[in-house]
Amino acid sequence: MLLQIKDLKVNYAGLEIVRGIDLDVDKGECCGLIGESGCGKTTVGLSITKLIPERKGNILAGEILFEGRDTLKLTSEELRGIRGKKISYVFQEPFSSLNPVFTIYEQIRESLEEKDNPDARIADILKNVGLEKIIGRKNIYPHELSGGMQQRAMIGMAIASRPDLLVLDEPTTALDVTVQRQILELIMELKNKMNLAIIFISHDLRIVFNIADKIAIMYAGSIIECGPKGKIASNPAHPYTIGLIDSIPSLEHRKKLFNAIGGKAPLFSELPQGCKFYPRCRFRIDKCLEKEPELENVSHGHVSRCIRIGDIVRAENRHNLQA
Amino acid sequence: MGKYILKRIIGLVVLLLGITIITFSVIHIAPGKPTDLEAQFNPKVSMEARERISHLYGLDKPLHIQYIAWLKRFARFDFGISFMDSRPVMQKILERIPVTLTIELFSIILILLIGIPIGVSSAVKEGGFYDRFMTVFVFIGFAAPTFWLSLILMDFIGVRWGILPISGIKSLEFEKFGIFEKIIDIAKHLTLPVLVSAFGGLAGISRYMRSSMLHVLKQDYIRTARAKGLTEKEVLYKHALKNALLPVVTIIGLSVPGLIGGSVIFESIFSIPGMGRLFYESVMARDYPVIMGVLVIGAVLTLLGNLLADISYAAVDPRIKLE
Amino acid sequence: MNKLTWFGLGIVGFFIIVAIFAPMIAPYNPGQIDIENILTPPSSSHIFGTDSLGRDLFSRMVYGARISLMVGFIAVGIAAIIGIALGAIAGYYGKWVDAIIMRFIDIMLCFPTFFLILAVIALLEPSIINIMVIIGATSWMGIARLMRAEILSLKERDFIYAERAIGASDLRIIARHLIPNAMAPVLVSITLGIAGAILVESGLSFLGIGVQPPTPSWGNILSEGKAVMGAGWWMMLFPGLAIFITVLGYNLLGEGIRENY
């Protein structure tokens, strides 16, 4: 296993917004991390190399084993050996994530491994991310590129040091739909070529279904369902996942059994007792309020945090049969 | 670059016209004619001088003709002849400008050399003891009147301890000195004025630098730099500092009028033969042509300062299109 | 509010009380000359000492507070009226009105303010009223810019459209709805402006072009202190401290308001 997150708990701005997360990512595997904005998914991604701003948040508990070493216990010197070298990031807003006063060349050059010849390697990277146009043009600044090209440059920076793991935090959200497509294809191509492991953080289940091997769904700071893409798509076992799938317009051939999820995600300052999804759940019963459910096996490699898994799966099967 | 500068210069012409209109209005603010006023306040003003100024301002002609005449003289920098010694005003001003500009230049350098590091280090250690200490220092700097500060420095360093001279820019026996001694002598005379002139601006720049740096440190590209595994030094002093320094260029330009205005106070306290003291003496003597001349030149110097700041800003910020 | 803001408010309140109750606080007539006691250092009978005419420094400073605060308040009041009006007009009407007002502000900002003030004073006499008007007329630009920026963002809000829909006049919209909602940052600027005006007044008086003796002001007392440098440290210390502390108070209060709105 390349990366193992075990019982990660993170405090941010005085609130525990990651409340015990377990997640494994294998070499060459793409894991989608799904959730509404503010559910803690970005914080999970940043925690992997302790990138949470010190003043705002701190990691309360847990282990993050990368190639067997706990990154949470590393010194800042050792962390720098991992950040950008073995674990790279691509963030949501390419324009604000690139430093406006340094050239694209300079910003990629900073990420290179020492053994590489800068010019040759940068040309190689630019070719790999589809930026052939600016090869050799050393005085190009970020603002001179379109949003899609900026994100290509970000991806170029991320793969410059041949990492093992890419953390992509909503990498296509800020882009036009047509450009999204191209960027996703680029990511898939690089993943296969470089045997990259990827954590793909997104609020958009549709995109993740396209790209991920495995999907973990977060709600209010914890994972409520996790499993291989196929099982999640065909056999969702948590009311929240079902709601998410039903709200995908492109899968509308499914006869609507459940409407899209009503209500809003709870604030971390006022989490409900028991199951955190209770207030919005269509399957809720009084027993759900007693305590927060544990993750239970649905089938091999597929877990769900719901005490009514059996009822839900049966209801779903009946619905699928009817369809 | 050429087009940008051209555009700036057109804007400059508009401002210059505005300056002439305002100075022209100032002439007409007085309840009586300036000529009457001169005679009333300054017994030195002879009938001949009254006629001269009446002719100079064409006060017997209609307003628009007066203004056009004023504009013509302005274009030639012809501000008439001083009442005090009957010398051309422009000549008197030109004699004084180098001293004032030298002091301003040194104090701007001093302000930047001290203010920028203070601001940057406060921002980096935001909320810590050093930052709070510097905040208090800055408030003191904002509140301490320069003339009081000058008096205290004069009293202690000059009068009581006799460390530095407190009046003029050179000693009586200056002419007898060798070249090296001359430089030392002038440096000694300028130390206190430069310190005093710098003190007020120091608080402003360091505060500005602090908030600029704090703003930059919250930007996404700083997270990107950290995620790349750069050292904290590279993150702060390469990626953050360059961005934080850009707006300071503009601030230097904007601080020019304050510095020139402030020169009246410390030049008259330290008896420095600069533009500020010339202005003060002219105000006390109601030497009208000189007052108007210095007012206009002060505004023109401010304009040049702003223009210089804009051009430097365009030169250092790659986002500003120069073509 | 944090401790520093309270501290600033305390200073501001203290000096306002001193100014209001000056006749009750001052132990002597501030103009009473006493040739027997020229330049005596602080003592139990004259806690701040006496000046070069034997007048009680403490009493002069108490009355000086009146002058300094009055000049500060009225000058900034004038600046606020001009700045709020021009800023609101520029922001609300936009287009060429805005362009003209903004250019006017740019032009005013080209002049070193202290030069402009001195030039006008050279023409008029340095009476207290003239000084207040001149300081006010040369320090409204910052307020106008702030006001304009606030109005620009406010006028696109729904409640303004609603007002327009029910046929409210421009004046009513500007005066009743826009300006009150835009006051918070302007208030900060006004508070800091009082500090600035007090500094300018004392600077002018120090140079002998401001408040004219025998009327006491902190600035002209300091100027007398300069004349007796070396012979009367109290003449330099107390007025300087008074200016310094007052300005500090308004600055702290202004920053406090900025952080709290």
Note down, in words, how this protein is organized:
The complex is a heterotrimer of chains A (323), B (323) and C (261). Chain A is of the alpha/beta class. In chain A, 31% of the residues lie in helices and 23% in strands. Chain A has helices at 41-47, 76-82, 94-97, 104-109, 118-128, 147-159, 177-194, 205-211, 229-234, 239-246, 309-322; strands spanning 3-12, 15-25, 30-34, 57-66, 69-70, 87-90, 165-169, 197-202, 214-219, 222-228, 296-299, 302-304. The model of chain A has no long low-confidence stretch (mean pLDDT 86). With 323 residues, chain B is an all-alpha fold. Chain C has 261 residues and is mainly alpha-helical. Chain C has one domain: MetI-like (MetI-like fold), CATH 1.10.3720.10. In chain C, 74% of the residues lie in helices and 0% in strands. In chain C, helix 3 (57-93) packs parallel to helix 6 (128-137), helix 3 (57-93) runs antiparallel to helix 9 (170-206) and helix 9 (170-206) packs antiparallel against helix 11 (233-260). At the B-C interface, helix 1, helix 6, helix 7, helix 11 and helix 12 of B face helix 4, helix 5, helix 9, helix 10 and helix 11 of C.
Topology:
The complex is a heterotrimer of chains A (323), B (323) and C (261).
Chain A: E1 3-12, E2 15-25, E3 30-34, H1 41-47, E4 57-66, E5 69-70, H2 76-82, E6 87-90, H3 94-97, H4 104-109, H5 118-128, H6 147-159, E7 165-169, H7 177-194, E8 197-202, H8 205-211, E9 214-219, E10 222-228, H9 229-234, H10 239-246, E11 296-299, E12 302-304, H11 309-322
Parallel strand pairs in A: 3-8, 3-9, 6-7, 7-8
Antiparallel strand pairs in A: 1-2, 1-4, 4-5, 9-10, 10-12, 11-12
Chain B: H1 2-29, H2 34-41, H3 47-57, H4 63-75, H5 89-124, H6 129-143, H7 146-160, H8 179-217, H9 220-227, H10 232-254, H11 256-269, H12 275-285, H13 288-316
Helix pairs in contact in B: 1-4, 1-13, 2-3, 5-6, 5-8, 5-10, 5-13, 6-8, 7-8, 7-11, 8-10, 8-11, 9-10, 10-13, 11-12, 11-13, 12-13
Chain C: H1 3-20, H2 22-25, H3 57-93, H4 95-110, H5 113-123, H6 128-137, H7 141-154, H8 158-165, H9 170-206, H10 218-227, H11 233-260
